[in-house]
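User: Could you go from structure to sequence for me? I need the amino acid at each position, not a summary. Structure tokens:
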């Protein structure tokens, strides 16, 4: 395999400033110092994770070409440890050949000139993420993700508490409705008792008195009159207690 005729800058490493997920463009410069036309291609071990423009081309004698390399803004598995590499392949264009694609298909591996560079990712502080133990920036990203998840928990608790309050209000409303129904029922019974008492008085004679055995307790008519007011007072007290619970 012949030696690479192109001059490649940087020589050994492609340095990216910042985290992989944020995207950070770096540049490679190819120079053809010869009097021959040279064809080139840029390859990488992770083609789906980098955007390379241009990734191939033609260098005229004594010309230069700048290559822009940008990581795609996607999450990178920490197990990969950014151990990506780039390779510059080149070949001297055969005389009389104008179809570049055909040249690459017909060229033999022994005629190809290769040059490899490794990728190095640096944080703004200059920390190299390729070295073991220097994953502080990646850890910061992980912590931020955990913090976002933790912030979401109080919102979930608030929603649960709101649902519980609504459930309690519904129960209280049903209890109030039930008490009102009971109160209506008692009023209806009281009206029936009054009608019955009036009927008995009318059947007893013109004086309106009802003969009945002597009793030491309070008269029935008094009990009938007092009973609904007592029940109403108890119902209102219970309703007040239930509603008061939701404003404490």
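Assistant: Here is the amino acid at each position, in order:
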């Amino acid at each position: 395999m012949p030696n690479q005729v192109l001059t490649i800058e940087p020589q050994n490493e492609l340095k990216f400033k910042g985290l992989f997920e944020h995207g950070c463009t770096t540049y490679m410069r190819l120079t053809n110092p010869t009097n021959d036309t040279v064809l080139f291609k840029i390859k990488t071990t992770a083609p789906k994770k980098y955007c390379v423009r241009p990734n191939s081309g033609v260098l005229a004698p004594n010309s230069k070409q700048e290559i822009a390399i940008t990581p795609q803004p996607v999450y990178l598995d920490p197990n990969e440890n950014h151990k990506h590499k780039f390779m510059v392949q080149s070949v001297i264009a055969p005389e009389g050949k104008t179809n570049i694609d055909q040249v690459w298909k017909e060229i033999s591996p022994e005629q190809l000139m290769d040059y490899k560079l490794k990728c190095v990712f640096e944080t703004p502080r200059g920390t190299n993420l390729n070295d073991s133990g220097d994953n502080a920036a990646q850890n910061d990203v992980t912590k931020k993700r955990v913090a976002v998840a933790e912030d979401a928990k109080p919102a979930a608790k608030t929603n649960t508490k709101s649902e519980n309050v609504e459930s309690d209000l519904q129960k209280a409303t049903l209890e109030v409705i039930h008490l009102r129904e009971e109160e209506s029922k008692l009023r209806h019974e009281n009206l029936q008792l009054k009608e019955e008492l009036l009927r008995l008085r009318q059947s007893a004679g013109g004086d309106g008195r009802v003969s009945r055995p002597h009793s030491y307790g309070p008269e029935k008519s008094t009990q009938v009159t007092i009973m609904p007011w007592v029940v109403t007072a108890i119902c209102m007290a219970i309703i007040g207690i239930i509603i008061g619970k939701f404003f404490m």
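One structural detail worth keeping in mind: Strands lie at 7-9, 13-17, 26-31, 38-44, 50-53, 56-59, 64-71, 85-92, 113-122.
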